[in-house]
Design brief:
CATH architecture: 3-Layer(aba) Sandwich
Number of domains: 1
Low-confidence stretches: none
Helix content: 25-40%
Strand content: 15-25%
Shape: globular
Order of helices and strands: HEEEHEHHEEHEEHEH
Bound molecules: zinc ion
CATH superfamily: Zn peptidases
Oligomer: single chain
């Protein structure tokens, strides 16, 4: 059993208020909003802990919140949901207490975690949403990308991340066309049952799923996730708002 209280304690030590957005199976789900110092900011969504047995995503989001993001906040505002599936996190299971894979349930109306996330998203439109995951079979990192305008940056992100760790040599086998080595397209065949395709359809012009191999040490997985995040935000900030 993992300690979810440690997560909420770390959140409470942040300089910004944490907001309770709902409770699922007895566990609170929180969001943190980091306001931009600019009027013309673009909204970024960061999520972790969709699959409870993938703790590196939760840790990556926490370490993002705990670091100094002053420079980024000159251009971006953030909505951060550190742990979508606290029951799974505590019990080290992919699914919820009811055996539901939340990442295949976004077309359902009766899943507590899904309802909480949808309510938190409200009518917000994001410039980018990144969801952090892990892969038990992989030996290197890879990512999925969806972008409404088709101008993919994933190949550049993979190149940047390759400087610190290897790309997974195997196709993840999710029926996703590849865009480059280690970069796969969020496929339209997925529908909107997963968070990222749901976001791409309704809330975000650009989505990324970052996948790290569980076999790596936790801090290496976290470092990879944050490298993908920073490389993506760098690319976005170079473009005109
Ligand atoms: Zn996952």
């Amino acid at each position: 059993m993992r300690n979810y209280t440690e997560i909420t304690e770390r959140l409470k030590h942040l300089d910004v208020p944490i907001e309770l957005i709902g409770t699922a199976h007895g566990y609170p789900i929180h969001q943190i909003r980091l306001a931009s110092s600019a009027d013309t900011s673009r909204h970024i969504l960061l999520t972790g802990g969709m699959h409870g047995d993938e703790p590196a995503g939760v840790e990556a989001v926490l370490q993002f919140l705990e670091r100094d993001n002053t420079i980024l906040l000159k251009k971006f505002s953030f909505l951060v949901i550190p742990c979508i599936n606290p029951y799974g996190y505590v019990h080290d299971t992919r699914e919820t207490r009811n055996g539901i894979d939340i990442n295949r349930a976004f077309e359902a109306d009766d899943i507590a975690e899904v309802a909480i996330i949808k309510k938190a998203l409200a009518q917000t439109q994001f410039s980018l949403a990144i969801d952090f995951h892990e892969d038990y079979d992989a030996t290197g990192f890879y990512l999925y990308e969806g972008k409404r305008d088709g101008k993919y940056i994933g190949p550049d992100l993979a190149t940047a991340a390759k400087a610190i760790a290897p790309i997974d040599p195997d196709d993840p086998g999710e029926d996703a066309p590849d865009l480059a080595e280690g970069v796969y397209k969020v496929a339209t065949s997925w529908g909107t049952q997963g968070l990222t395709p749901y976001l791409l359809h309704f809330h975000s012009e650009h989505v990324i799923i970052s996948e790290t191999p569980t076999v790596w040490k936790l801090q290496q997985r976290v470092a990879l996730h944050l490298t993908i995040l920073d490389a993506a935000l760098n690319t976005l900030s170079e473009k005109d708002v």
